[in-house]
Batch of 3 targets.
Target 1
Amino acid sequence: MSSKKRKKDGPIDFTIDGQKVQAQEGWTILETARHYHIPIPTLCYHPAVHPWGSCRLCVVEIRQDGRANVTASCLAKPVAGIEVLTDSERVQNVRQWVLEMLLAECPASQEIKELAAQHGVTSTRFAITDPNEECLKCGRCVAVCNEVVGAQALTFGSRGVKKRLETPYRVPNNMCIGCGCCVSVCPTGALQARLDTVRGDISRRTGHGFAH
Amino acid sequence: MKKIKDVSEFQELRQTLLAAYDPDQPVARVCLGPGCLALGAEKVSQTFKSALKKKKGSFKVQPLIKATGCHGFCSQGTLVSLAPLDLMYVRVKPEDVPEIVETSLIKGKAVERLLYSDNGTRYKSAAEIPFYRAQQKIVLKNVGVVDPLDIQDAIRSGAYQSMAKALLEMSPDEVLKTVEVSGLRGRGGGGFPTGYKWRRAAENARENPGPAYLIANGEEGDPGAFMDRAIMEGDPHAVIEGMIIGGFAMGAHEGFLYVRHEYPIAIQHLSVALQQARALGLVGKNILGTGFDFELHLHRGAGAYVCGEETAIIASLEGRVGEPVVRPPYPVEEGLWNRPTVINNVETWANVPHIVNMGADSYTNLGVPQSTGTKIFSLVGKVKNSGLVEVPMGISLGTLVEGIGGGVPGQGRFKAVQTGGPSGGIIPYELRDITSEGVKQEPAKAVPDEKKGLSVDFDSMAKTGSIMGGGGMIVMDDHDCVVDLARYFLRFLHEESCGKCLPCRLGLQGMLGFLDNFARGQGTPEDIDALESLGQALVDGSLCGLGRSAPNPVLTSIRYFRDEYLAHIVDHKCPAGVCRDLITYSIDPETCDGCGLCAKHCPEACISGKKKKLFTIDTAACIRCGVCREVCPVDAVLVA
């Protein structure tokens, strides 16, 4: 976007977990971290689409001028001289709770269970409403359908805990071109079953999910 | 009405209107604010009109009946104020109207029984009533005075004078400077410096030539808050004028009034005001012949609380789902249709004409250095004088609640004040005596000292863990349970969460789960710590202000009232007698006089007894609704 142009062009120097890093113009903190192989867990982030910031798993703590702020690294643009912490106490607190929420939100997802276990979260204090749920409403499928495919066949309906992935106005539509992009970008394979009904379950044959 | 071509025509119109005004003409202003409307003010206003018709010919000057916006003293509605007699009648019923017409409008005398009285004193003029005495009406000056549906009445009272001053006598930069120097801060709750916001938007629009937009945020969804509503309903021209001045200062030519669907009267009044202003040429092309164009559109919100968040308003105006997006970029950089956009609260816009009119220096004399001007609060809850108040910033909490509000009705002290709506926090009674320097003042006096005690301004309020917020102020007494209150606000936000980000969507549900348990006497003390840590995760992890501030009522109530939480969990008792699973009702045999009212009103018919003898409650069948306690004339119903 033209209006996005900042006055300060060129690379930005800052630190992530004490390590000196340099971000190219336009990079987010997450992109910079990935460039330097500094691990930050993500779920809703996908390089093919605009960051959406819904899963909040990628939060980092930013320290600047004596102030500290926790924010999503997939959306935050670095400023010269900031200190980014990917594993501070506040970040860990958010991450632990988000993982617990995820375990309750999509209890059927093997991917989520593994991710949570990697961070030491194996049980949840939140109520599970649907034990068969795999969708975490991260918005990847909606974004890829809108931004990459341009079909706009998917959207979210309702709000709050009632939020659901739907077709616009909850009616079948012919905007879907059947490309399968939504299925392939899904981090948990929640849309897999739809595709499987058409072409058979690949994971049963290969032992691997289609999601990655 | 003819279109006004230049400023001399405008001033001519005002002079004509002023000349036509007869200071001896009796005027009765009937409050049609939300509170009075609910009490039947419409009928009072109509009765006035028909009574005048009947008495036609008995007046020296035919009186005028004005249906106005909120007078503020909601607990005493329906309110009728009379000029030039300077009388204020309270609790007026339609049947009182003939007497008012006969005694006051014809004979010019007061109807004593309708005057406000307190502790044996009768107050004739509104200015003498303690509720009004400590107030300073700047923004609300015309609310309750002018007829909001008549632009001529507004112009007579000075509307659009500041606009004329800004457009003709000042440069855009001078207006910007005036707002900057005035120290005006966002009245929606954030307290962001308005002048700085305007400056940024103006610079961004200059660097990137193209349109800039203004938005008035009238999506006032906090439970128990009605400040913006009163302004929009009672003085819609102030908002319009403020936005035109803002447009001039920032070089913006288009603005949007975003008003929630649940305010039909505000929408009606604003749209009539817009129509009339447009007909006069005060909105539209070439305003007052200065060559400055400004167009305003009225947009109805569709009923989502989150659309009070500025990025969600933008999404909603653009036709997208009202969900917030991450800032930065801030709206002043990339707002509506990716153009610099300034979003201010209705009250902030309504302050602007007054700042231009009185000048930045006089405005800074109001309030305290870091929070200048006045603030409107809606004072509700367990307070004697509930209503809409406008006070200078920096007034002490004690003066506000106990002085103006008259304290808790009947008995001693308030327990806490919940400020800032669902995103705000709970401030306990004890803090009312703490000054911003942290010094405890002498014990409370009957009429608290105005300058002492917790200062009500943006920064002092933030220090307590609460926020100033939009101006909702809910007073609680010993019969209010903090766990229950926190639960109430949490449930509201849980309903209103857009569900975009996980911490807000599921986190609020999780927090609610903890509180539901506590209210049933379940849980462990460790759960309180877990709740605090989850709350902190929401504060840090949520995407927008709704989720980031949602835990505030819970976190502040734990901070100040941990004992009450523990009482629920450990002792399985609700000290305030609110949480139904933890209380039992009984009748005190000593006090019960056997009137039987409780048995008559009990919906479960579980109270038995004989007249003049003791009544008893069947605890097993009791649903703990509390009706018996409410109706008991001798306070014999006990809750434990």
Target 2
Amino acid sequence: MNEIALLIAATIASGTPIALAGLGLLLNEKSGVLNLGAEGMMLIAAVAGFATAFLTGSDLLAFAAGAAAGALAAAFFGVLVIWMNTNQYATGLALSLFGGGFSAFVGAAYVGKKLGERVPFEVPFLADIPFVGPALFKQHPMSYITIGLVLAVAWFLYRSRAGLVLRAVGESPESAHALGYRVRWIRLGAVMAGGALCGVAGAFLSVVYAPLWVEGLVAGRGWIALALTTFATWRPMRVLLGAYLFGGVTMLQFHLQAQGVEIASQLLAMLPYIATIVVLALISRNPAWIRINMPASLGRGFHPNS
Amino acid sequence: MLKLEVRPQPSKLMSLASPLLALALTALFAALLFVMLGKDPVRGLGAYFFEPLNGVRAMGEVALKATPLILCALGLAVCYRSNVWNIGAEGQFLLGAISGGGMALWLTTAGVTGPKGLYAPLVLLAGMAGGAFWAAITAGLRDRFNASEILVSLMLVYVAQQLLNYLVFGPWKDPAGFNFPQTMTFDASTWLPSLWTGTRLHWGFPLALLLVGLFWLFMFRSWRGFQLQVGGLAPAAARYAGFSARSALWTAMLTSGAMAGLAGAMEAAGPLRQLTPHVSTGYGFTAIIVCFVGRLHPVGIVFSGVLLSMMLIGGELGQSRLGLPNALTGVFQGLLLFLLLACDTLIHYRVRISKSGIKATMKARAA
């Protein structure tokens, strides 16, 4: 019983960074820009967050540093893609490759350094309920903040005027431009917000989840988060559920290993990636369903004078 | 105020000048970084761009590392020209190494003997089949289920790496290898022989150059290549002409998978002669940069393959000679692609000082 509660708690912890990154990419994609650089932004932010936490001892500053690093990396990508009309796929890929190299370079000094276990935040009273308490209410505060952020983004996109404008830019930049909205600045804002959230996700991984820095720490979570926006058909709540699903698959793999199941650990380690492929294929198999939900200008550049 | 203006026609000159400009900017950035790290920038740049070409032996190493890059990039160029975004060449490379290495291992345990390189063609064919199979998974899911080939091909990189780990830590581990995660050394008859005794450069390099010629013929002088390019440049026109997008997808994916697989098998049967978890040092990802820097053109890819290979070796030299971190190579690679994409803007646009912009700002200032 207690074991299952711990498994649920671990699932939430491992789903949180994917949810944060997926949510950021959702905002990003709602404006019509596809950023394949998620993995690179998360890696850069993971180093920035770890270094800040190591030097200052403050988690809050670490998350701020991660967000700033992610937003800065996203801004470089954004200027290239939005103003210079470079190919979005290639530029995102460049950011991912650059992030991998840059984080390894900067992070070399922090390999093997320890931060110490993070104390989970126990929600008063609720944490004392048997089973439910240890399963749900003994998490790092960021896990709760993530749920709040998902609700906030859902409200922003579908209930606020600014969200409506953002979606309009993503559906038809030409119309939004004709109405007088500054399409390129709005897109840059969305890209940087997405980068900041990916950055918080990266910092969460290195400061709370691991907590350590090794080269390639993010291990494909940026790409899983990119796939997640498609699974979720660009809906915030579904991003959260999908992220917990992947957190669950990751944890199941460790759980099975700990149980001494007769399957090689390397084969179990394939699980999250195979699960991503399977779910992606299942969700995408109806092209009409994807086309209805996908921001119509996703991946296309916009040049106001042409 | 600076403004980008669409050129009436894409500039041929800029399309060739842009990689050189990007390279110059990368070198400039590298020199600045060396100064910041307290190293001599001249020696630093020398390690990356001069020393790898200093002497026949060093040039052999450059060609050795350029071979897998050129092969992977040739296949990727076909993909990108057909607007198929295969970014999982790394996984296809690993599968090539696994199936090529597996073939060599099977022959070795079966006790084959013979002159050096007798069975190398079999090993290379197995590698091509393995790489093409891995790419076929991506193509099949794209074709049948409409799943993004970008994400699927990338996820399969992680799966391939774990598969390789499983094999060399488990069933394929050398029983006499002191528990190291590696297979036994293959029999000499399965090796890819060296071009000259004493160097590590093998027959894969001339084979890669031959394939460059074949790919040029295929892309620019064949009906099939023409169909692929039309499909990539103008999908609507291709549909109207009756060129099948499905067959383009399969052709591009299988070709690039086979090329990456060939490169993987060469790596296993050439310099390594056994399988370890570290068969690839990111060749499949570096090949993406090679492909773009080489202008998605087979001949350009030869030059950019040599360039990126020099940078890989330069990273090692910088580490051993100047104590620079090896991770710098990754920084420079990513930066080169970034700068290249930025410089490529000048192919389709020209920079103009916009008069209305100046007037507008002056008015705003006066007000």
Target 3
Amino acid sequence: MTETTVILDAAAMQRALTRIAHEIAERNENGAEVVLTGIPVGGDHLAKRLGKILSELWRQPVPVGILDVSMHRDDLDQRAAPTVHPTVIPFDVTGKTVVLVDDVLFSGRTTRAAMDALNDFGRPKKIQLAVVIDRGHRELPIKADFVGKNVPTAEGEKIRVRLVENDGVDEVVLERPR
Amino acid sequence: MTWTRKHLLDIESLTPDEIVMVLDTARAFKAVGERAIKKVPALRGKTVVNLFVEPSTRTRISFELAEQRLSADVINFSAEASSFKKGETLKDTARNLEALNADFIVIRHSASGAPHFLARVLNASVINAGDGAHEHPTQALLDVFTIREHKGKIAGLNITILGDILYSRVARSNIWALRKLGATVTLCGPATLVPKTFEQMGCRVTHDVDEAIRDADIINLLRIQHERQRKTMFPSINEYIQLFGLNKARLAKAKSDALVMHPGPINRGVEIDSDIADSGRSLILEQVTNGLAVRMAVLFLVNGGKGPSEVAGN
């Protein structure tokens, strides 16, 4: 049995994304230098949504890509092969500020893999990290630049980020084994 | 779906979901080949031995490049320059390779079942790169991948395989894959090379080429394998060309969107006319490109360990 607690509902998630977008705009004065890349499954949709808000703030289109990190993971022989999604980055990242977008920041290993994967596409001027949930338990020296909500968790607990695009509903829940 | 297989030995034992998982994974690896930097670190530190006891150029090169693009260390071992000439058995050769800590063995062998045998006696992952007239699983996977890319699906398509079916591991693997994914498969060629017994694999068998290609969405041509035929199975090459060679006049009777495939090497003017091979309806070179992606996907999948595939973060 698991006990589930809703951490963010649809309205709260929308507010979190709007706030993250404003923080990205505040940190990066020149919007023309900023591109977003989302990590599937989840981050790709979140990046699209952030890109939409940012393009309204900056009054110019913000390029959004999809960055799959499966081929760069450090645990490939320790678990069954992950589902690989196509990476789609239809723009040059060299000289750009790339904002990596993920749903949950946990060990930091996905972020490390993402930075490696991004390297194959060019040399960004800066890489920044935006996540909806930071649940702690870092295993690498990695820190998010933009966080929707910090959620202290225990190791056995699970964070589920459900998105309209994948699951038909926007919400973040914490699952706790009982 | 979670991939749990350590080896890729044949298509016969795969489930439809497993086949689709290879195809979906290959889609992502195809994109890697289109980048400026065509290499990913997925198999860094792993050693792959290409054990080609039967000669092969294109399959070996395709596997070798796939392995290098996954950052594996690669050893090529061929029949001509090896211990087989000195009388060493396959088992001893393979054990020696494993003693060098090989993680993967990609084997091409003239004996059906050789990969299955190695999988039983070794700890390494074994990938079948063609065993006798039995199976050539990665060829079938790349063929199905290519068909799906063009037609958007496999189920409900009419696929005609034309040529030397009896001696063809490509045909057998293709039949398994296509039937499992719901295609209708028609086999055609000289009666000596396309016996009715193939109907037991769920195929339609005909010896009339015009009838075989009339409703086909895909025409997959197979080479006449002189090296595998113990005696001549048809009167002459000229007669084969007359009765079964794919030429413009014949293709004109097929559906206008029917596409032509061939695993290579092609015999221009025998099973396929030059102008068809070079036309926009030929997928032959795309098959080569896709073969690389499919082989990267297979290596990536069998490299996985045990346990759930779900990412720990979520």
